[in-house]
Amino acid sequence: MADDIFGEIYKEMGAKPIINAIGSVTLLGGSTPKPVVKEAMDRADAAYVNLPHLQEVVGKKIADYCNVPSAYVTSGAGAALALAGAAFMAGNDDDLIQQLPNTSGMKGEMLIQKCQRYWYDRCIEVSGAKLVEFGDELGAVESDLENAITEQTCGITWVANELSPGTVVGNNIQTNPLSLEKVIEIAKKHGIYVLVDAAAQIYPLDILGKYIRMGADAQVIAAKYMGASQSVGLALGTEEMIGKIANQSFTGYEGRRIRGIGRPMKVDRQEIIGVTVAVNEWVTMNHEERLAEAEQQSNVMLAPLQNIKGVKAEIINNIIGNQPFGVRLEIDENIVGISAAELVKKLQDLDTPIWTRNGQNHEGNMIKLVPWALSPGQDKIVGEAIAKVLQS
């Protein structure tokens, strides 16, 4: 991107634009919609439309693209979690819908494995649901789930992670959560629902919607990863559950005149059209070309970072998930003179700030550079700028 137009609108407002080498994170704006998506959103300006009707027709298209029974466009994956939690508790009962987030007199508890607690489970609690843990920090077994189910349990949430069976905690210990297959089996036996947070699970394409095909009732996705705006997400699910989610949403609030919790989670008509086009583009695009471009950008970043004393630089050879490839830098603080955290801060303080972040827990001496959000030419800028800081 040319220097004379890089972030000019932000500069005019008095804000400082950055180069995003972190990837698709909400803190930095999430995504840049693809040109075809922007065009579709612009075309949506030409007329108004009944939004409950629009949600119904595009929901059928998106469901077809994702090979699931039904879909609904939400204001991000977090909103989809909140709406699903509300739908699990209140169902189609209008009195209960309007009572939330007060859960008195209804099944108001959602189970979650202790080893799967994560930053965004807070979104489920927005509905009024109480999260109840089962198992321990390292995993769970069938009896843990069976013993946790009570008369107050409306559902179970399960956190998807295609890259490994679980997450890595301190001292490089791998967790062992109870599998989704077993969670679904036990939930069905007890007549309770299953919600899967699969916000970033969009590639390979066979994982798009796969948890619904496995038997979960609802699955949430962050559509920003597919080239939509960051403010939209998807709820995929059974026709029954998506109907209940729609009743909780802003369209249910205005169209049915039933005051559910979803009124603040509004999505405009342009976004609804844009995300529909984005999902279609994602399932029909040439992913080999997408992956090749990401690998090339990563190699460009890597080139100036090799052979720096105290720094181990290598390509991240990953194509699974939403943000493939990238560069991993391991820093020997004793040789380089700064820690990974200090490097991150120095990069943010450059005249043209470069944002990345260091690892957490056992990966504290490492930073990852992600090409996903880089504009043309920024891969070279990132690699050379980091090399200059490290060598200074």
What does this structure look like?
The protein has two domains: 8-30 and 286-391, Aspartate Aminotransferase, domain 1 (Alpha-Beta Complex); 35-284, Aspartate Aminotransferase, domain 2 (3-Layer(aba) Sandwich). 39% of the residues lie in helices and 16% in strands. It contains 16 helices and 15 strands. The chain has helices spanning 8-13, 35-43, 51-66, 77-90, 94-99, 122-125, 142-148, 180-190, 210-214, 239-248, 250-255, 269-284, 287-302, 333-336, 340-348, 378-391; strands at 19-20, 70-74, 109-113, 130-134, 153-159, 168-169, 173-174, 193-197, 218-222, 233-237, 311-315, 327-331, 354-355, 357-358, 366-369. β14 and β15 form a beta hairpin. The longest helix is centred in the first third of the chain and has 16 residues, at 51-66. The protein is globular, with a radius of gyration of 22 Å.
At a glance:
With 392 residues, the chain is α/β, with parallel strands linked by helices. It is 39% helix and 16% strand.
List keywords for this structure.
single chain; 392 residues; 2 domains; four-stranded antiparallel sheet; 16 helices; 39% helix
Task: Describe the protein's topology.
Blueprint (H helix, E strand, L loop, with lengths): L7 H6 L5 E2 L14 H9 L7 H16 L3 E5 L2 H14 L3 H6 L9 E5 L8 H4 L4 E5 L7 H7 L4 E7 L8 E2 L3 E2 L5 H11 L2 E5 L12 H5 L3 E5 L10 E5 L1 H10 L1 H6 L13 H16 L2 H16 L8 E5 L11 E5 L1 H4 L3 H9 L5 E2 L1 E2 L7 E4 L8 H14 L1
